[in-house]
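User: We ran a pulldown and think these components assemble together. Before we commit to crystallization trials, I'd like a predicted model of the whole complex to look at. Sequences follow.
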Amino acid sequence: MTAYIVRRLVMAVFVLFMVTLVVFFVMRLIPGDPLIIFLGQSAQLGSMSAEELEHLRKEYGLDKPIVVQYVNWLRDITSGNLGTSIYYREKVGKLLMERFPITLHIGLTAYVVANGLGVLLGLLAAVRRGTWIDAVATTFANVGITIPVFWLGLLLMYVLGLKLGWLPISGYTSPFQNFWLSMKQIIMPVACLSVTGLAVIARQTRSSMLEVIRQDYIRTAWSKGLGERLVIMRHALKNSLIPVITLMGIGLGLVFGGSVLVETVFAIPGVGRLLVSSVFAKDYVVIQSGTLIIASIIVMINLIVDIAYGWLDPRIRYT
Amino acid sequence: MSAASQSQTVQFQEAPPRVSEWKRFRRVFFQRKIVLFGLVVLLLLFFTAAFAPWIAPYDPYRGNMADSLQHPSKKYWLGTDIQGRDVLSRLIFGARTTVMVGFLTVLMAASAGMIMGLTAGYFGGMTGTVIMRFVDSLMAFPMLLLALVLAAVLGSGIHNVIIALGVATTPGYARVMYGLTLSLRENDYVTASRAMGATDRQIMLRHILPNSLPPVIVLVTLQLGNIILAEAGLSFLGIGIKPPGAAWGAMVFDGYRYLLTHPVLSFAPGLAIMLVVFAFNMVGDGLRDALDPRLRGLL
Amino acid sequence: MTSHLLEVRNLRTYFTTEAGLVKAVDGVSYYVDEQEIVGLVGESGCGKSVSQLSVLRLISSPGEIVGGKIIFEGEDLLQYEPNGPEMRSIRGAKIAMIFQEPMTSLNPVLTIGRQVTEMLEIHLGMDKDAARQRAIELLRMVGISDPEGRIDDYPHQFSGGMRQRVMIAMALSCNPRLLIADEPTTALDVTTQAQLLELMKDMVERFRASLVLVTHNLGVVARYAKRIYIMYAGRIVEAGPTKKIFSSPKHPYTMGLLKCIPRLDERKGRKLVPIEGLPPNLIDMPPTCAFLPRCDQRIQRCFEEPWPPLMEAEDGRLVSCYKAV
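Assistant: Here's a predicted model for the assembly, 943 residues in total across the polymer chains.
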């Protein structure tokens, strides 16, 4: 098992390295003067003289070959310097630190809900196949993967917020400041964010479980005189979770992607919204660093998922 | 031999007739009514997209300011937006955007992904590892985020949306193709071909590619739903297709402000998105079950 | 008539498929007494596996047991709920089964120790430590070396032969009265086959249990079984003591089977004679004898009357054939 973990770690580092390459080079695709990446397209740039521009370029190391630029950038990143936002004129690191806890609060809650409820729902549907429970669960899952996250947000906002007035329709408060208000505020965003993931996990758990139940070793378990509970929980579950775990890794990506939409709809000051407004403001520094951080988090979570995979399925430990 | 067996012929029992593959496929595919429903919806979608200019009652891009923000009526079946544009017409033309973006994206992603997966899986070694790690790194970016960044870099507009979504979905195809190539390449007929002198390219094109088409087709159908949702999300955010262009996601955003008074403005395009995505998913499920139910674990 | 350990009477198990109704087991009757080894022989698809699965009520949709009686220790098993408490206390504890495919019959994500001890815990109420000790003993008994070390290993770390030994250990762990072995060695090579069969015979004697040996290999039953039942197309066509069946088979099918086997005591140059034709399609069977198309000893009566029931031939053997009786 240890060898397996080490192998996965090494691969993760390699992927992380590639991620930095992707981020760096995509940002270099921006048409125009590379200075735009750091200073933005301001009127100032246009009015500067050639020498002043040259001077600036030297300052940002843009006169060096691209490989050196990459290495310098990598050095900055790893020492914590994520650059200065063009729009906010603040350190990107600071901006992200303010917003990450918010996004994580909602995102992780949604993630846990989606995975936990999803597995439960899928399990129920598979074990009670053909009954009304299965029908309801499957329908719910099928609908869940089709709903656009933002549309669901609007729908919930309309029904629960505007028409019925049960829940606040926007804003965010830290749970440490006002627990109840915080709870009420995140119900709708969490619901929106978790629906797609929940549906995907439920569907996969169900079909996995149905496959596993037909296997020979399940028949052996029955022939040993075990009851339904043990057959399902001890023999079938672990096996059916194997493909589901892979989805859980992808699920985190869905959560981050979804928060971009959910935060916009519910006016939550998180990382997602920051990124969206940065796209409009052409604040490339924020875009570059923000994307890098998010992608890195996902790589690390996927590493954990991989390790969990190895724990679930002992046969994998040799790959 | 007894006299009896000479005078009476005995029929050997025939093996039961093999149900033709095509018939079996048809039967399984159309088994569930919901798949049929999905198919009908998709046909409707294509029809609408193709004949939009003839079906739409009004010009979707220019509106009559005097008729701004009308509720659904006999004149405007779904009402009008702030610019006085007929919602129904915009919905119809939005179908065009949806279909075009969907198919072009999938075409791009599937081709690129299949080439990458095939190369990585077939040749293996360092090439394979590098390609697949690159694919992994792409997968580390949430689809929407990647599309967002690419759109920021490339600018807005429908072609950039297609490129952005294409790049974001390529890894899925690459992964599936990689796995398929790895297992198909071990088959005996591949070894036999090689023994007969076939070149790598011939093996890849003639053996591996055709056998990997069914799962890829299923993946395409299933992915189309996601792509449509992502495109809608992008236009909702204001990146990609902007008004006066007709895109369902953008329409939802436009209606956001008037949610309380004119809910139809946001709900109609949202429903359209849902219906189409649902249809693609159901048809995708049906295809997968009909082609090979064993894929249920994989896809 | 003495009471048997297991008596199956007129068992019928049908499968409803889209191609039609498959009568996998169509009126099978046999019995097993205490401490005896009985063989059940037939080609693939003749229904022998299905009949054994029916005994343990392990048949699920689209299959169904539609008729007959399965009397075990005096009680008809068919009166119980398929997965109810009575069946559950019989499975594993009174009747245990060994399956054909060692590769897929063990759960890949559980250690073999766990798979053995769980039976001990459930049926014999042992606690964890006692169960573990007993499991180690059982593994040693079936010939797995270093059982203390290997008890925490996973199935994929064992070879096919080893896995079957584990299955044998599992099956016998709770001292069942009856062991059913469904083609236990078919998937293994010949040397391992021999070892495993000897092991099973030893273990069954040691535990004083009975064994039903299901196989298509006549050689296997010749050596180990006291009595044999020959199955064809869902029914039993001949039954009797092993020696008699081999020395003077009565049913044309049995005769055909014996002619197919090479024997050491034959004269050189004798050709192996296969049975012509294919096994029948179990859907839409004609009412006449199912072996008719392939039989080389047909008489007029075979064409006119329905499938012959098991009748007594001389010396008390049962045969399902008009010519033989």
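The first helix of chain B runs from residue 3 to 7. That may be worth checking against your pulldown data before setting up trials.

User: Thanks, that helps.
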